[in-house]
Design goal:
With 229 residues, this protein is mainly α. The chain has eight helices and four strands. A hairpin with a 2-residue loop joins β2 and β3.
Amino acid sequence: MINFQQRNNIALFIAILVHVSGVIGILFSSYKDWFISCTPLNLLLMAGLLIFTQKQKNFFFYVFIFICFGTGMITEVTGVNSGYLFGHYVYGEILGKKIAGVPVVIGLNWFVIIFCAGTIIHKMNRWVYKKMTVELQVSTGVQAFSFIADTAMLATFFDWVMEPVAVQLGFWKWLPGGEIPLYNFLCWFIISAVLAGIFRVMKFDKHNQFAVHLFIIQLLFFLMLQTFL
């Protein structure tokens, strides 16, 4: 039977292979359009690898996936069809099957981003609090606020890096002039903060090492494309 370290290694190898191939294919090959068209499969695969590497796949873990997916879809459908959230934008056809104008994989992407960001901040906070002296112990309320704010900020930073690349690749476009509004990032921060609070109180294992690796890999992927595309 494959142990969790082996699972992490397998998932890490696949994630690196897929994203490095994507960068090379999009930037340096004549098959750019094919690599871009594989984005929905990539998003599904990364979400699957997160589940594959999760040690404690209990009821609360799956509920969190459902909450992230549902929240992501509801807010995105609201945004696309009303402009009340994020701003005025529309999705292209690259990301696959849609519900009310929003690709289904976008809901999964909300889970991937929030889960990875939450795992990173959870690990960082545990390390920091262990290093503190008794006199510097932080109250539970401050810890909760810090975790939620930091996770939301990290998730919003990821969106800030991803946005211009996603627009260039045709995932979605902003209306009317194509400028990305600051309001988009404000909505990202608020929604991410709500999901981060749910992540914090949900009772499931929050030490998924692959989630840390995946966040870094995806961030580097978009930074490379943003720089050279």
